[in-house]
Amino acid sequence: MDISITFDYPEATYTNGEVVSGKVILFCPSTITLSKIAVNLIGETKSILSGAPGLLTRRKIDEFHRIFPVSFVTEKSKSESIKLQFGYHSFPFALKIPWLPKCESCPPKTSVSRILDDKETQLGPPELPPSMKEPRKGAEVIYRVHIAVTILRNMFKSTFRKHAEISVWPLDTRPVSIGSMCSGDFSSFSTVEATIMGSSANSLSPTGTGDDLLLLPSTTGTSKVRIAARFPSEFSLTCARDISMRIDIEKLDGHESDLYLQSFQALLVGYTDVRVGTTTQVQMAFWMVQSLSNLGLKVFSSDDEEGTVNEIDPALWRDKPLHGSVVPSFQSCNLERRYELELLLGFQCNSPKARILFVQLRTPVRVFSGITPGRRLSVDCRYPYDARSMSEKGCSSTGPTATNGFGHEASSLVSGQSMEFSRASMLPSPYPPTYEEATIASVNDGLQREYGLGKSCW
């Protein structure tokens, strides 16, 4: 027997409260007796520490996140088992992603796991960690749909298993209005002050000897400035989007000189904290957002007065979205992902012969998924990796119909508005049902009356 899994939205990135729907397709090479089909949604984190003090050369610890919607389990007594003939047979399923994870490093329903849950409740609700595969850095977060099909063979039970991975990111908890904010309304800011030296009045002679008098170079003047980088609330950035940032430069003295911006660099630094027991290891990753040189942009002229504030042209970092491998910030169980944004600006004072002074501004930032509440999934939605195109055209709630194992079309299992989902039954076929279809429909009706399930919840 062959088992396959198809999803209604195979390219989607799911989030809190959404429903993962699809079909379990069985191929029977001969007549079999079906006893049970169990579909579970499992989240798993895997942490690896290598070479840490007090540990072995390689230590591997798995931690499971049990995510419990009502798992689809179809189980009846032997007298009510289903006979499946030769061919393909499909069974729909729908699993809801919970709002909060449940971190368990020990088997569930044990005293140890309950103590861990109580401790986490006191520290605050954990965040749903995003799907992440970084085996070289010792951290993996994997979500998968696990299928177990049990059949009867001469009074013995045989179980066949299959799983398929899905992508899950946490919901964006920021106000929806934050996406339409003007740069002047950004409330979070980080500042740094710097003194830009002018050109040298004295220089060393290239033909000088060791007996010559050594003259230290001096500058004709300096310019003091304050650089402020402003961000939306909580220093927030959005995955796969341009950086929402405003950079202001304020003149702090009355020095009469021109000030030029010669270089600009924006670097995103990611930290992954992996904790195993009392040992924590930090792994770093870097993403270059923008790097420009030889700009020659005038920031201040000699006529500008003290206290003048000018804004750097945001076109320097426009159309430079965050890399697709950047996942949202989170802190859950034994993993934490945090970020810092490093800005490196090169200034030049007075003339092209002046020195270039590099000013570094580094600030912690928080990266959000950009998945807003109430969105509607569709087959074409590949959010968040195509974030800008999806924000323009939106995600439609309807898409092409799927095909079940019998060759008939079935409507989408997920529909509705504002995170509310309903299950639809299969569309009527213009042909009379086969024996297998009629048998499955009869069993579905029985389960619906006994357990109160929808028609598609086999």
From TrEMBL:
One Gene Ontology molecular-function label: ubiquitin protein ligase binding
Residue stretches making up the Arrestin-like N-terminal domain: 4-98
GO biological process: ubiquitin-dependent endocytosis
GO cellular component labels: cytosol; plasma membrane
Entries under SUPFAM superfamilies matching the protein: E set domains
Xref: Pfam families: Arrestin_N
InterPro entries, A to Z: Arrestin-like_C (IPR014752), Arrestin-like_N (IPR011021), Arrestin_domain-protein (IPR050357), Ig_E-set (IPR014756)
Protein name (database record): Arrestin-like N-terminal domain-containing protein
Lineage, broadest ranks: Eukaryota, Fungi, Dikarya, Ascomycota, Pezizomycotina
